[in-house]
Structures are given as structure tokens and as C-alpha cells.
Amino acid sequence: MILKSYGGLPPHLLPDREIHVIVSVLSGRHKAQEYYDETLKPLLDDHHIEYSTHTTTSAQTVIELCRSLIIPNATQGVKQTIILLSGDGGVVDIVNTLTTDLNRSSDDVRRPSVFMKPVIAVIPMGTANALAWSSKVAQDALQVLFAGTPKPLPSFQATFSPGSKLVTDEGRGRESLAESDDVESVMYGAVVASWGLHASLVAMSDTAEYRKHGLERFRMAAEELLKNVHVYTGKIKWRNTSDEWEELPGSKHAYILTTLVSNLEEHFQISPDTKPLDGSLRLLHIGPEPVQDILRILGLAYQAGKHVTDPKVTYKEIDALRIELDEEDELWRLICIDGKIVAVEKGGWVEVKWLAGSGIDGRRVVELVC
């Protein structure tokens, strides 16, 4: 019995909470349902934990659950724990939907003054599971579920120029992010915002054919992309809280991201200075280097993040990042926000800013068990 070492159920699994298990059946290599049936369900039942189970039927299921169940509960002061069998996408759907909907109703006089942050416990079932590895959950997710402590999950806001579209259906579909194409749109994330090689890798490998290869999908996509390496054109600016924008030298780039996590995969330590849920937003940039140099630098990330000491790498803590894209082909105007891909219009831009962590206005709308 797993609880013998811990002396009873933790507060986030006690009967005074609504407990919901979400099984994301298409995450990663489609192992979530099997894990739930064979491991998690028997364990919860053995410990007489009352819960409701929700199985995803589409990419919208978690978003719909947020709006129909999680948000109404939170704004009525209901304590709730979400046990999430998914990759990073499930957590991000919850963070983005809660933050977006709460902000949308911020001027509504009927909005309740109470907000009880949902607690999320992740059982990582995705491909890379960046958030789970970075927060030390993935090493033993069941131990964390029963012995971990909920902590506020930091997030960032990404604002897009008018006309930006969410890429769907393995790259074939486009959905408007805003109510009309002539206004800016906003998304929220908790892991990474990127342009350049990282975003292109994620976009190219986000198909059923690639996904069946697990983590290998990223290597396979990289080999394809680097056959004819593209140099990305645009302006990149960054700043800290009260400072003016500073521009990175040159208009040509290879790899650009800003992240709240240390690891994008178990062994790919992109930001070694980042500690679990410390809320720091860090910038990493590689300029238009030859393919072999890019591969060498990124290879060092698998050696405990040694790439950040390379003179060809820019690595620093920031509060905001602005990317102004100067690309003709939409293929090179793709932005990655926590695994979701956004196509920016010609001449468009994206601005990412760190969100403070105090109160509802701080937008740390959930807590993560870690």
C-alpha cells in the first residue's frame, strides 16, 4: 500500500474536495487509458478515494470541461483536484482557459469575489512532458500524487498581432484566436514560447505519423528540417520590468525561445538556471550559425545544460520578449506556445510577458502538486 510511508491521504485527496480524473487518450503514444485502467484506478479505489472520470473525445474536451465544470466550481469556492493523465497540453489547456475566461469576465459585476484555485496532479502521458520533468513530477508521479504539495504554477501571456491563427488538424486547419481578424489575440502558457527551429520542429512533428515514434519524432523532424536549414528573419527584442526594449544584434536567427521550465525533455535541459516553479522567464537565442554548430550547441543541452556557456548562445532572465517577423512564407511565421502552433500574418509580431504571481490578477490560476 503506497500510503504506508506517508501516514494517510494528503489534503488534495481528502473527501472535502471534488476529485476529477481526466484521461487524455490521444496524448503521446496513447497509453493513458491503459495506465488508468491498470494502475491509477485500482490505486484510487484501494484507498477509497471518491472521484469522477472524464475521458477525452477530442482536442477540445479539456477546454470544455474547464468551462462547464472547473471554472464554475472555482468561482463558487469549491475545492477541486484534477488528476490529469496527459502531456503538457492538458495543463496548458486548463491554464489558458481559466486565465482567458476569468479575464474576459473581469468587468462583469456579477462575477463572484471568491476563487478557489484548482489543484492539478499530473501523471505524464505526453511525448516530452517538459513541465513534469522540470517540476520533478515525472520521476515518480504516483509518489508525488500521494506525498507532494500543491504550489502555484507560474505562467506567461503571449499577445499576437491581428490576423494570427491557431494551426489545427495536423497543420491543415486554421482557427481564429480573436473574435475578429483586426484585433490582437492573447494566449497563456506555462512552459515555452518559441520561434525558429524549435517552433518548426514542433509544428512538423505534430502528426499522427510522427507521434507514434515518441521522442524520436523530434530527432526525425530535425533531420528533415536541417537538410536545407532555414535562416529566420525578423527583429527580436527583450526587456526587464521597467527597462526600455533592447534588440538582439542582427535580423537573422536560428533558434529562439523563452521558457519557464528547465527541461523540454527528460534529458534536454534548455534552461539549467531555472528551478522548479520558480517563476523566472528566461531567454535562449542562437543566431544564424552553420548546421553543425547548431547541432553541437543543442547537443550540449543534453549534458546538463552546458550549451548556455557557449559564446554563440544568448541566455538571460527577462520579463518580456517581442518578435517582429519578416518572413514571406507562413511556414517560417509559426510560433509555438506550449506545443500549440500559431501562424502569424505577414509583418506580424508576438509579445510574451512574464506574469506576476500575486492574487487573481497575478493569474496563477492553478496549483501543481510537486
Automatic annotation (TrEMBL):
Domain DAGKc spans what residues? 14-145
What is any one of the record's Gene Ontology cellular component terms? cytoplasm
Q: Name one GO molecular function term.
A: lipid kinase activity
Q: Which Pfam families match?
A: DAGK_cat (PF00781)
Tell me which Gene Ontology terms the entry assigns under biological process.
sphingosine biosynthetic process
- Where on the tree of life does the source sit, at the highest rank? Eukaryota
Name of the molecule in the record: DAGKc domain-containing protein
Source organism per entry reads Exophiala aquamarina CBS 119918
